[in-house]
Specification:
This protein has no helices and eleven strands. It is an all-beta fold and about 110 residues long.
Amino acid sequence: VQLQASGGGLVQGGGSLRLSCATSGLIFRDYTMNWYRQAPEKQRELVAVISRAGITNYGDSVKGRFTISRDNAKNTVYLQMNSLKPEDTAIYYCKASRGKNEYWGQGTQVTVSS
């Protein structure tokens, strides 16, 4: 199983980025997909979740600014991030989960300048 996150980079505050997480080696449509982030010296936190049925949930700090989506035909999950703030700076990770099974991607760095 492989999860490859991409799309991170440096952006000014107020800007947008779109992260992608391409998966292989699993039956993508059977998995709940998650985005997490971890800032320096902080715990990893859940950013967004999308279920197999497409139901979404978001962390309080990103509600109204971030949108998670999935394309089962492409085995890929996305995170559209708008109105970015410096406090969104972190490494962003994708995770596939199904019951007790979970798989993590390698992370992509997002840096938001003020």
